[in-house]
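Project standup — Tuesday

K.O.: blocked on the structure for the chain from last sprint. Re-posting the sequence here as requested.
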Amino acid sequence: MARLPKKSNYEVIDEQPIVVTLIHFIEAKVELFTNSQSFQDNYLEAVSKAEDQLSTAFCIFFNLLPKNEIPYSCATEIKQIGNNKIDLGFFNKEVLIFVMEAKILPTPLENDRKEHEYVYGKGGGIQRFKEIKHGVNFKHQLFRSCGMIAYIKEQDFDYWFAKVNQWIMDTNWLESEKLTRKYPNQNDKYISDHSRIDNSTLKLHHFWVRVA
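H.V.: unblocked you, prediction finished:
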């Protein structure tokens, strides 16, 4: 685990109702992504098939969704702690209210990437949140809730649910940090609770979508 950042007493901001509404909105719409024109134009017909291309396509898809007057918007490559950037940021007007890390499953094993990158290691998704490299607004206040989106290319959701939880156990983190199904009758939306290196707590919302 990395050293504590220079500023160790991060303020954890209360989760606003508009954030809860945003999370539910993403849950309701994420399964529509691969049928969208943005997915067709910005991923299927693109030369690049990497995570950043998928996140660009998802962000465009999100921004074109009707939102019933709720002023949500999405942007990519959002500044976090130090030189770190996170894949997706969601705004209420001009205010950053939610961030999301994106990973392809299985992880492309190139440039020294490892299969367990969703959880830990170089570029580790969950680990970055635990180490406070991710999960802050522009005032460096910690979000109580953040997100991860998995672009699944092989196997089914149940396979990756078991795999991700095994990787969490491989880290010697607490068993309580394993993913659980958010809804009993759905296997594409999960939640997990984690401790950060400043002992604050974080809830991660996991949105999974099949892209191949």
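K.O.: great, moving the ticket to review. The beta strands are 12-13, 72-79, 85-92, 95-105, 142-143, 145-152, 180-181, 189-195, 201-210. Residues 139 and 186 are 36 Å apart (CA to CA).
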